[in-house]
Backbone:
């Protein structure tokens, strides 16, 4: 996975509401049509880092099956970060696509 | 919320709410595990299989936690805390080592900080004047006549400063004490300065009360009797003598025979020059001032676009003109410009820097010793370190741990040192000679703190790096297998050998320096001052004019002598305006012309001039070589007489005996000839290191305008006990008359050795410390080496080596290292002693005797330090030695 894409995918996955850790991984798998499978070993360090950067806030809530779980939710800063990373990504990917076309 | 704020909050949470954060993490991961298990069960896997698969998918929980922790803020800091905690635990586990190391470092850092606070206060802190580096001092010199550090002529100064535009403002001043009293209060002598109007603006300091001088305050003044019309007083005098009277302005300050209205009070601490308490305006009548009256001091403030060098160039050029124009008075006279700061501290600067260097060497030796201790300790810790390395600690991780420990050690040592330095600084200051410059500036300030901190951190890395590198280079397998006495032990030994060589070399350098200084000091004490200082009390008395006048000056001192002679225990009483070793603080030179030999301009016939009273020569036991001393009959009406010293007699008259009956005149002051009635021995006029030069004496009665006398009283017992008697006798003649500068002549001699004595003592202390440290270091290395070689020695003995062979084996190893160190040290000392060359007296910086003696001393000490472990090795029982492994 490209450097920085994990952050972007996590932000995107949370764009429609709060999720707990592994549900985020599940959601990423869904929205990328199964192309990205995020392992807990990369997911949790990323979540904790983003939480400390205050893009995400965590709170303990109840999961669908009635268990207590730690839910992550986007903050305003996280939303801004998502917009910024999205436009960055678009610029980079179209540039790379253009480069590949000329070659 | 800006990102960095949230980071800092996260950092705080991670550091201070660790347990909560960790619990939350565990809960989160437990939940994730359960989630995985449930998902898998829903997909139809059996419960036990689901748990197994979930565990695999999640990875090791502890490992995952580790990865998450590493992504957190403060991860490195936390590691540091862990290292520090662990380091502290290790240090507490070996209290003996820790105490020795902290003591060595504490002493090293403490001594360094103490010396540095001296250097800081005296050399580094700027003078307490605004833009002090722009204030320059004019110093007269006449290289041809061997005169340095002279005052200057006011007329010359006027030309220097007015024919150029490099100076923003200029001022001349003179220094002379004044008697306070005659207002019922205790008579007191205080330093006073006569200054020209620009004085306070050159220094950039204004009165806190009242005003500074204006040109209208100035009245022409002569050097001795400054006739100011108003006065400015110091803050201290205002507090002490006037009870901080807020309405002081306009009140009179009562000096011995007249009083002046106070127009200003200076800010606290301002006492320039030389603890001045009263400033009076003093202008010069340019038309009457002689060009060769070199009695003035002068300062100036440079314009902002000018540096010292440019100013010197300009002034030198003007001075060259003056030399041509006023040949008779100015021939050979030159002027040097100094920044005021540099000029105040230049006498002590070389000593201070040499001391700083010396104490730095002691610290280096202490570091080498601690490094040796650490090496030995890390040898003992090999297994522990090997285990850590085997468990996956990286080389950097181990290096960091070891360095943390040594820096921790140096930090504790540094704190101990800082505390110690506060006390040491006080001791140092009490050792310094009186009159040493800028002592009031010596305090612990941020520079001193930074220095102590820097030195501690530096030493921590310095003594920690070698052992740490050694430890981290460890070969894990061999260390675990056999406790590491193989190749690694060898490498460690070579590091220790290098440290030993360095220690020997450094201490040799220091010892040679100390040896040279001690030898200089002994030479200085062997100098014969030309008089006997024992059992002599000296004191100054200055009679106020116009309360007294010329004949009364003579009469007063004659009567005082008679009274003092009546006191039991007083053996002889005399006085001179000009005591040897500059003990009266007043020196005056006069040219003279032997009869029939007209003065040529190029010839130096400047002699130290003294008007004397009473039994001066008998009181100081200056030997009479020929003729007679002055008697009461040599009064104002009698034929004019003079006594000369041996140097003049030999240089101008052949011999003391031949000089008697010849005549000379005192140049420009007296138009008549004086007959030489006596020749006395030479005395040291200015300092013990200088030569006495030519000296002439005349009876006070025949040059009666001197109102000042340095009294000399030879006593049967302790002269200091007569101080009160002297005061009583003076005040019996005049109750308002203060006696000041009361000291024994022994103290004067001691004090004239001043900074030399202190720097010699300190150097000796540092050198002893270095020698001790080196001895301990050599012993430590050798003892360790014997332990390392136990097996080898056992085999040697089993194969038939004698005790003497073993002894020789060990001693040879130590002595080889010592000799290499001695050779390196000799080379270093040869280079370094040049630095202290100007602190030496009567001994060359490469004095072979000192170099050889010190080398032998060090070799002897090293031999002793090697012998003890060697003897232990020789006494080893081969069976036991071999069985040990």
Residues:
């Amino acid at each position: 996975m490209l450097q920085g894409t994990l952050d972007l995918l996590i932000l995107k996955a949370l764009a429609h509401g709060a999720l707990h850790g592994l549900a985020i991984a599940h959601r990423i798998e869904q929205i990328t049509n199964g192309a990205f499978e995020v392992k807990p070993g990369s997911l949790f360090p990323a979540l904790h880092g983003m939480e400390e950067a205050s893009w995400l806030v965590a709170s303990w809530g109840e999961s669908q099956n009635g268990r207590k779980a730690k839910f992550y939710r986007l903050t305003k800063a996280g939303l801004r970060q998502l917009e910024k990373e999205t436009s960055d990504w678009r610029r980079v990917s179209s540039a790379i696509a253009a480069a590949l076309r000329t070659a | 919320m800006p990102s960095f704020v949230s980071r800092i909050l996260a950092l705080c949470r991670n550091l201070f709410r660790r347990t909560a954060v960790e619990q939350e993490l565990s809960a989160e991961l437990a939940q994730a595990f359960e989630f995985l298990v449930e998902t898998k069960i829903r997909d139809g896997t059996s419960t036990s299989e689901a748990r197994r698969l979930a565990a695999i998918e999640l990875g090791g929980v502890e490992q995952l936690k580790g990865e998450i922790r590493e992504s957190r803020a403060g991860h490195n800091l936390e590691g540091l805390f862990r290292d520090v905690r662990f380091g502290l635990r290790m240090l507490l586990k070996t209290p003996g080592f820790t105490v020795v190391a902290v003591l060595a470092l504490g002493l090293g850092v403490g001594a360094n900080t103490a010396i540095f606070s001296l250097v800081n206060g005296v050399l580094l802190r700027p003078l307490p004047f605004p833009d002090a580096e722009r204030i320059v001092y004019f110093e007269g010199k006449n290289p041809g006549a061997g005169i340095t550090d002279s005052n200057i002529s006011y007329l010359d100064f006027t030309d220097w400063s007015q024919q150029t535009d490099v100076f923003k403002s200029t001022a001349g001043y003179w220094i002379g004490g004044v008697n306070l009293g005659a207002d019922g209060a205790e008579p007191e002598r205080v330093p006073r300065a006569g200054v020209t109007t620009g004085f306070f603006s050159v220094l950039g300091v204004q009165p806190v009360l009242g005003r500074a001088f204006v040109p209208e305050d100035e009245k022409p003044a002569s050097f001795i009797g400054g006739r100011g019309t108003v006065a400015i007083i110091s803050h201290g005098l205002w507090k002490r003598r006037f009870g901080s009277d807020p309405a002081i302005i306009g009140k009179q300050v009562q000096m011995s025979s007249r009083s002046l209205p106070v127009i200003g009070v200076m800010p606290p601490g301002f006492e320039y020059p030389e603890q001045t308490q009263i400033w009076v305006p003093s202008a010069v009548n340019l038309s009457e001032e002689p060009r060769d009256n070199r009695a003035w001091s002068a300062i100036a403030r440079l314009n902002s676009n000018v540096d010292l060098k440019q100013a010197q160039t300009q002034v030198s050029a003007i001075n060259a003109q003056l030399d041509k124009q006023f040949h008779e008075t100015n021939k050979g006279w030159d002027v040097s410009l100094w920044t005021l700061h540099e000029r105040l501290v230049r006498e002590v600067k070389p000593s201070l820097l040499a001391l700083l260097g010396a104490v730095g060497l002691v610290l280096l030796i202490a570091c080498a010793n601690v490094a040796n201790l650490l090496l030995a300790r890390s040898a003992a810790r090999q297994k522990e370190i090997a285990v850590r390395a085997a468990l996956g600690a990286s080389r950097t991780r181990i290096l960091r741990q070891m360095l943390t420990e040594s820096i921790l050690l140096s930090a504790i040592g540094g704190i101990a040192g800082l505390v110690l330095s506060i006390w040491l600084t006080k001791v140092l200051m009490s050792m310094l000679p009186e009159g040493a410059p800028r002592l009031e500036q010596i305090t612990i300030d941020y520079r001193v703190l930074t220095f102590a901190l820097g030195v501690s951190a530096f030493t921590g890395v310095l003594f920690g790096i070698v052992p740490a590198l050694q430890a981290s280079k460890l070969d894990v397998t061999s260390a675990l297998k056999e406790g590491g006495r193989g190749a690694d032990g060898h490498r460690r030994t070579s590091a220790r050998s290098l440290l030993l060589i360095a220690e020997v070399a450094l201490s040799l350098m220091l010892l040679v320096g100390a040896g040279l200084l001690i030898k200089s000091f002994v030479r200085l004490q062997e100098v014969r001052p030309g008089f006997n200082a024992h059992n002599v009390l000296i004191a100054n008395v200055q009679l106020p004019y116009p309360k007294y006048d010329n004949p009364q000056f003579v009469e007063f001192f004659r009567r005082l002598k008679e009274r003092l002679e009546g006191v039991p225990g007083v053996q002889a009483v005399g006085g001179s305006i000009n005591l040897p070793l500059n003990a009266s603080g007043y020196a005056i030179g006069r040219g003279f012309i032997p009869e029939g030999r007209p003065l040529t301009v190029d010839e130096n016939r400047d002699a130290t001039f003294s008007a004397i009273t009473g039994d001066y020569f008998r009181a100081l036991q200056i030997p009479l070589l020929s003729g007679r001393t002055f008697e009461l009959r040599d009064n104002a009406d009698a034929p004019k007489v003079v006594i000369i010293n041996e140097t003049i007699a030999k240089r101008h008259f052949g011999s003391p005996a031949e000089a008697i009956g010849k005549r000379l005149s005192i140049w420009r002051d007296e138009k008549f000839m004086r007959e030489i009635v006596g020749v006395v021995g030479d005395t040291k006029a200015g300092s013990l290191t200088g030569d006495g030069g030519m000296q002439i004496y005349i009876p006070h009665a025949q040059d009666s305008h001197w109102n000042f006398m340095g009294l000399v009283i030879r006593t049967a017992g302790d002269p200091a006990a007569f101080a009160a008697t002297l005061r009583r006798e003076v005040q019996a003649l005049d109750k308002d008359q203060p006696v000041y500068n009361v000291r024994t002549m022994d103290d004067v001699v001691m004090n004239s050795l001043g900074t030399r004595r202190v720097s010699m003592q300190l150097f000796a202390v540092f050198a002893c410390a270095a020698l001790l440290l080196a001895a301990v270091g050599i012993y430590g290395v050798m003892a360790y080496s014997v332990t390392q070689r136990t097996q080898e020695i056992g085999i040697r003995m089993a194969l038939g080596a004698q005790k003497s062979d073993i002894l020789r084996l060990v001693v040879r190893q130590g002595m080889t290292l010592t000799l290499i160190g001695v050779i390196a040290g000799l080379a270093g000392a040869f280079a370094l002693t040049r630095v202290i060359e100007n602190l030496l007296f009567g001994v060359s910086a490469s004095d072979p005797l000192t170099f050889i003696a010190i080398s032998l001393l060090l070799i002897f000490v090293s031999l002793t330090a090697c012998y003890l472990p060697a003897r232990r090795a020789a006494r080893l029982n081969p069976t036991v030695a071999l069985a040990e492994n």
Observations:
- The longest strand of chain A covers residues 56-62.
- The mean pLDDT of chain A is 85.
- The beta strands of chain A are 19-20, 56-62, 68-74.
- Residues 5-102 of chain A form a domain with the Arc Repressor Mutant, subunit A fold (CATH 1.10.10.10).
